[in-house]
């Protein structure tokens, strides 16, 4: 046991990545079960929210566990304090939140000039307000599950050794990055021709 703790404290980021994937994809396998991903659209729609939840809880669970193990009680208190700390003005949060969907919408509109199949699904929906609201809520909730782990644990540990750019590349290249924001909040921007999952409102534009 001491050897394991020593390894974790020497390689906290590597351990974090491994534990995050183990928790997230292990959760997906538990949710999906031995039968695998169902081919039936209705069954897939029922499972999809739980699959996304399983994917998004991994980063935060791993971050909290490793913060306690690596940094102890003081580290956990600092971890929680940073969750309530606003580092920049609120308008910069608006820029960060609005830039990706606006760019995606502009790109899809440009593509829609060549074919209507690229028109964002929200513009073809009969209930635009509900679709947009469910997407925003799901995206924010997913982000709240993910970001305490990525930006609360992985980024600070990486910044002890690397610069901002390198840290961004390492975190951004991780396959699990953004798994909550894209399937949930980004669903409203998917083209109308994308496969639909009518039993789940968050994914109703897919």
Question: What report would you give on this structure?
Answer:
- The chain starts with a helix and ends in a 34-residue tail after the last helix.
- The protein is built from seven helices and no strands.
- It has one domain (2-203).
- Mean pLDDT is 77; it is low at 175-206.
- The longest helix has 43 residues, at 41-83.
- It is an all-alpha fold.
- Helices cover 68% and strands 0% of the residues.
List descriptors.
206 residues, mainly alpha, 7 helices, globular
Summarize the structure.
Helix content is 68%, strand content 0%. It has 206 residues and is mainly alpha-helical.
Tertiary shape: globular
- Main beta sheet strand tally, sense and closure: none
Number of spatially distinct domains:
1
Structural class: mainly alpha
Estimate what percentage of residues fall within beta strands: under 5%
Mean pLDDT across the residues is 77
The tally of beta strands, per DSSP, is: 0
Report how far apart the termini are. Answer: 47 Å
Low-pLDDT segments, ≥5 res: 175-206
The gyration radius over C-alpha positions equals 19 Å
How many H/I helical runs? 7
- Portion in helices: 55-70%
Taken in chain order, the helices and strands follow as HHHHHHH
What's the SSE blueprint?
Elements: H1 2-10, H2 12-32, H3 41-83, H4 90-112, H5 121-124, H6 128-159, H7 164-172
């Amino acid at each position: 046991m001491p050897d394991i703790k020593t390894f974790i404290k020497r390689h906290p980021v590597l351990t974090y990545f491994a534990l995050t994937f183990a928790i997230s994809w292990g959760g997906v396998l538990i949710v999906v079960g031995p039968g695998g991903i169902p081919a039936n659209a209705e069954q897939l729609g029922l499972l999809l929210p739980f699959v996304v939840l399983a994917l998004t809880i991994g980063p935060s669970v791993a971050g909290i566990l490793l913060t306690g193990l690596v940094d102890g009680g003081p580290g956990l208190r600092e971890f929680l304090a940073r969750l309530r700390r606003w580092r920049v003005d609120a308008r910069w949060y608006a820029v960060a939140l609005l830039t990706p969907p606006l760019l995606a919408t502009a790109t899809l509109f440009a593509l829609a000039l060549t074919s209507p199949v690229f028109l964002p699904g929200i513009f073809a929906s009969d209930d635009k307000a509900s679709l947009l609201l469910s997407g925003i809520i799901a995206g924010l909730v997913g982000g709240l599950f993910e970001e305490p782990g990525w930006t609360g644990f992985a980024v600070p540990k990486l910044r002890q050794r690397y610069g901002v750019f390198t840290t961004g590349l390492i975190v951004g290249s991780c396959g699990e990055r953004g798994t909550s924001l894209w399937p949930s909040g980004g669903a409203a921007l998917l083209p109308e021709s994308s496969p639909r999952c009518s039993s789940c409102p968050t994914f109703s534009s897919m």
